[in-house]
Write a structure and sequence with these properties.
The protein is mainly β. The chain has two domains: 25-119, Immunoglobulin-like (Sandwich); 134-187, no CATH class. The chain has two helices and ten strands; from the N terminus they run H-E-E-E-E-E-E-E-E-H-E-E. Strands 3-2-5-6-8 form a five-stranded mixed β-sheet, with no helix packed on it. It is elongated. The relative contact order is 0.13.
Length: 194
């Protein structure tokens, strides 16, 4: 009886850890510097979702660093201001699911009433995380067959994806499962939004 209870606890803990690994948000972080490269402390940083108007605010730390965790995917504007500096605004920041967006904001001396607006560049190559994610747009999902959707067909353009027979007893003959970067077929998670 004790063995059964221990197994139940183990499987519940395993399910909880798998749930923690799944994410539908991203991270926006960055550093605020002055023109000499010194960090700007206590600068006010505002992150606003351009579609919903949701606004999050925080101040930079002693190293000029700010971080907004658990940010929903979407388009954002970041505004940074501090007394004695011009207000800096970065527009059109598009955040995808599980993306980490690093920003470097440089404030120039001036009045807050003066402002500099920058349109964000496309996302750079991700060098800080080892995770792999891909956003499949609405057009691709709408091209799926309507009666019995084959969601596995959406991973074909993903770098490192291939199909292999399952390594399980009882799997149907001729059945192929998607495998990403030689991962185990039983440890792959696919999200379909919409």
């Amino acid at each position: 009886m004790a063995f059964r209870s221990l197994c139940c606890v183990f499987y519940i803990a395993l399910a909880i850890t798998a749930a923690w690994a799944q994410t539908s948000t991203g991270l926006v972080r960055g550093t605020v510097l002055d023109t000499s490269g010194a960090p700007v402390t206590e600068a006010t940083v505002r992150l606003q979702n351009t579609a919903t108007g949701l606004l999050r605010t925080q101040a930079t730390n002693t190293e000029g660093i700010f971080e907004f965790p658990q940010v929903l995917a979407g388009s954002y504007t970041v505004a940074v201001e501090k007394t004695g500096f011009r207000k800096e605004t970065i527009e059109a920041i598009t955040l995808q699911v599980a993306e980490v967006r690093d920003l470097r904001v440089q404030l120039t001396i001036g009045e807050i009433s003066e402002s500099v607006t920058v349109t964000a560049d496309p996302a750079a190559i991700q060098t800080t995380e080892s995770s792999l994610s891909q956003v499949i747009d609405e057009r691709r999902v709408s091209q799926l067959p309507p009666k019995r959707p084959q969601y596995a067909a959406t991973d074909r353009p993903c770098s490192g994806c291939e199909y292999r027979p399952p390594c399980q007893r009882g799997a149907a003959a001729g059945q192929l499962w998607p495998v990403v970067h030689a991962g185990r077929t039983t440890r792959q998670h696919f999200y379909c939004s919409g």
